Amino acid sequence: MNDIDFIDKCDKQLGIYYSKAKSYCIDTPTHSLIILRSFVSHFTYILAKEHKIDLQKTYLYKKIEQLSLVKKINNDIISILHEIRVDSNQGAHFDKSNLSLEEFSQLAKLNIERACKVIELYFTHIKKPIPIYFFEKITLGITKETCYQAIMENDLNSQYIIGLNLQAKAKLEHIKEYTQLKNNGEQFLLNPNSFKLLDQSTYWFKQASQSGEHNEAIFEFAMCLLYGEGIEKNEEEGERLILIAADKNSINAKAILGAFYLEGSCLYKKDYKKALYYLEIAAKEEHPEALTNLSYMYKNAIGVKKDVLLSFKYMQKASYAGFSHAQYHLSNFYFNAIGTRQDYKKALDLLEKAFIADYSPAVLTKARLLLKGEFLEKDLIKSESLFIKYIELENDFNVLFELAQNYTTSFSHLKSKEAILDILKNCINNSNNESIKNKALELQAKIK
């Protein structure tokens, strides 16, 4: 008995989820992780039925926590379910992550193994012997069969999966190209391969979306149009398709549509009532942007009564889902006692999590704290390196000028006058911000 048969022996639907997740593990790991989220969701209902628990219609996090209150359920089961949940959220919103395709593959493989472990624990939990099985090596990827189905049978899901695969590869290639530019001191690449891969992924998303039946393919093609990725930018058409995808129950599309109504867009005027409606639906599925936007609305009384406690709770939920941007913003809640008591330890722990994920605002915040010696031991060398890292991530001339200022004060021993003037020259020649240009000119005159 192999691992797929082992899971199938426990529950047929779990077996289907597991088999699909494993087949996508290498080439399309983000989709593998998304399927594993469905695996966890279904497993929570199996446990709930076992213990006659009426699960709340709420976040997956809360469902797992509801099960954790049952003393008979092994804590290891709860821990593994949370681990898979957090990592599956990374797959669902890989654009918010800094992981490469290889790292996502490793993450998917790790969670495939966790799925087996949680079923082993379940057999023990129901007092049945664990069936003897072997874990079959993961060798499957985007197979010839998938490609055949996409091309010859016009199978929408196969077309969508190929689009996801190429999209993930484009992201990885873009990271490599960026590193190459940085190492070679170049400003641009001719015909970058990442653009070619984006063209191909967009083609397949378009193919899968044309029938109007595949909601996530419609969403992905809409995003391509909105940002001009692999196709000529067309915001109005992109927004029109977002509404169609949302009406077909794409959670991603509902979150984006809610943001449109919150901020206003080409086709959709500000409508806080509609924004709240769509964002709340997406938030129930732990969508990071929906959760953070709801937090923003309640914190600033936008279309709702101000409620910093609720604002904190929404941001906390986004943080629990494992999103670095939410961890960063939640750290600010703890730093400034917004909707919670002030807790510098929790604030610094969350800041560090976002920093480890290379979330650029966290990098900049840590650079400033190390410079001032606030909450962290003063370290000018490390602070300088983090300022540079942030600038490389964001190409931010405001912070480049801030760094130049630091070289004239706190970092005065780290750079020569000529090097500082070169930085200011960069700000003057390349920044589009007139205020930064003028400040750089003033500082340049003082140094000379």
Task: Kindly provide the name of the CATH class of the domain at 3-126.
Answer: Mainly Alpha
What order do the SSEs take from the amino end to the carboxyl end, as H and E? HHHHHHHHHHHHHHHHHHHHHH
CATH architecture of the domain at 3-126: Up-down Bundle
CATH fold description of the domain at 3-126: Four Helix Bundle (Hemerythrin (Met), subunit A)
Description of the molecule:
The chain is mostly helical and 448 residues long. Among the domains are: 3-126, Four Helix Bundle (Hemerythrin (Met), subunit A); 372-447. Helix content is 71%, strand content 0%. The chain is built from 22 helices and no strands. The protein has helices at residues 3-10, 12-23, 29-50, 60-68, 75-92, 101-125, 144-151, 156-184, 193-209, 215-227, 235-247, 251-263, 272-283, 288-300, 308-320, 324-336, 344-356, 360-372, 380-394, 397-408, 417-430, 434-447. Helix 3 packs antiparallel against helix 5, helix 3 (29-50) runs parallel beside helix 6 (101-125) and helix 17 packs across helix 18 (360-372). The protein is globular and about 80 Å long. The N and C termini lie far apart (77 Å).
Features:
448 residues; mainly alpha; 22 helices; 0% strand
SSE layout and pairings?
Blueprint: H1 3-10, H2 12-23, H3 29-50, H4 60-68, H5 75-92, H6 101-125, H7 144-151, H8 156-184, H9 193-209, H10 215-227, H11 235-247, H12 251-263, H13 272-283, H14 288-300, H15 308-320, H16 324-336, H17 344-356, H18 360-372, H19 380-394, H20 397-408, H21 417-430, H22 434-447
Helix pairs in contact: 1-2, 2-3, 3-4, 3-5, 3-6, 4-5, 5-6, 7-8, 8-9, 9-10, 10-11, 11-12, 12-13, 13-14, 14-15, 15-16, 16-17, 17-18, 18-19, 19-20, 20-21, 20-22, 21-22
